[in-house]
Design a protein that fits this description.
Blueprint: H1 8-15, H2 21-42, H3 44-47, E1 52-56, E2 62-64, H4 65-78, E3 84-89, E4 96-97, E5 106-114, E6 125-133, E7 151-157, E8 161-166, E9 171-176, E10 183-187, E11 198-200, H5 211-221, E12 233-234, H6 240-250, E13 253-256, E14 269-270, H7 271-284, E15 288-290, E16 307-308, E17 310-313, H8 315-325
Parallel strand pairs: 3-5, 11-12, 11-13
Antiparallel strand pairs: 1-2, 3-4, 5-6, 6-7, 7-8, 8-9, 9-10, 13-17, 14-16, 15-17
Helix pairs in contact: 2-4
The protein binds 2,5-anhydro-1,6-di-O-phosphono-D-mannitol and magnesium ion (MG).
Length: 327
């Protein structure tokens, strides 16, 4: 009888279609790192690793001790992966080259611990990954559009630790089995419902919002008696991974727009290791991911830590939001 919950390795080698064995190694190295980060999070109160590291990253954000631990775990777990040429991390200023690039080598972009303001209050956090390939020997240009992604994934450290992956043929969710530590397939071919009655936005920023975002949210809040003719629910976990996972599971729309306060920086979320991988996963699950108007995956990146506006989730709702931008 076929195992209804194959391990990640079995899925990659038997069920994911033709796949480069060195990409299998890389994905397994990433998953091993996530397992180790999950353990570090669980033991943080004993190990004295909660709280701030006393350092600031390249983006001017305070680094948590666990941001740095997670970054180190991922780098150490993946640096010997065959054909991995470079790492680009939220916590490192520049690309970390592991070898001289050859055509087909892999480039790994990652946010080691996303939503890390949630750590000390014991709420869900995650890690986000994006993989592209080197175009030609000696090519050190890591700034490729999201359409060039070979795969994208995130780990969610929640009540169940999960690893959610797309290789460009649908989205597959693996749950970490208590006891064995194996990631086993539990959510095959995840699909986002097209319609939704749930939105996610940091409402404390309302005074900074642009007119289209203001109008969209006001219409949702007006509920059954408003222009939408239905009541909406609002959820915001301050952890993009948790918010995206909820949307992949039961639909919804997530917004982190550019506003009067973050406009100069381009937005809040980073293109290469937050917006692009999440956009890839959302599109692979039948949803849509935009900058408010244009598709995120088509944007040509200009910098390693470039920030962009992000609107993603159920396709119809994302399309509706775009309409608010049309005069
Ligand atoms: P981080 O990578 O430094 O944790 O920042 C990204 C996080 C996202 O997970 C989340 O959607 C957002 O920042 C929360 O922002 P806010 O503090 O405005 O709620
Ligand atoms: Mg992040």
């Amino acid at each position: 009888m076929t195992d209804p919950h194959p391990t990640l390795r079995r899925f990659l080698t038997r069920q994911a279609g033709p796949i480069d064995p060195n990409l299998v190694f890389l994905i397994e190295d990433i998953a091993s790192a996530c397992r180790a980060i999950g353990n570090a999070l669980r033991n943080a109160a004993f190990e004295g690793t909660q709280g701030h590291a006393g350092a600031v990253n390249v983006q001017g954000e305070d680094q948590k001790t666990l941001d740095l631990i997670a970054d180190d775990i991922i780098a150490r777990s993946c640096e010997n992966s065959p054909d991995l040429a470079a790492l680009v991390s939220e916590e490192r200023e520049a690309a970390h080259w592991l070898k001289s690039p050859e055509a087909g080598d892999y480039l790994l972009f990652y946010d080691p611990l996303d939503g890390s303001s949630n750590i000390d209050v014991n709420l869900s956090v995650g890690s986000i990954f994006s993989v592209t390939q080197v175009a030609a020997e000696g090519d050190t240009d890591v700034l490729k559009p999201g359409t060039a992604q070979r795969c994208a994934a995130y780990a969610l450290y929640g009540p169940t630790m999960m690893f959610v992956l797309s290789l460009g043929h649908g989205v597959y969710g693996f749950s970490c089995e208590y006891g064995t530590g194996d990631f086993r397939l539990t959510h095959a071919r995840m699909r986002i419902p097209e319609e939704t009655g749930e939105f996610a936005i940091n409402a404390s920023r309302q005074r900074f919002w642009t007119a289209p975002i203001r109008a969209y949210v006001a219409d949702c809040l007006a509920g059954e008696d408003g222009p939408r003719g239905r009541d909406f629910n609002m959820r915001w976990t301050a952890s993009m991974v948790a918010d995206v996972h909820r949307i992949l599971t039961r639909g919804g729309i997530f917004l982190y727009p550019a506003d009067a306060d973050n406009h100069g920086a381009g937005g809040k979320l980073r293109l290469l290791y937050e917006a692009n991988p999440m956009a890839f996963l959302i599109e692979q699950a039948g949803g849509a991911a935009t900058l408010g108007t244009g598709r995120i995956l088509d944007l040509a990146p200009e910098g390693h830590h470039q920030r962009v506006p992000v609107v993603l989730g159920s396709a119809q709702e994302v399309a509706r939001l775009a309409d608010y931008h049309t005069p």
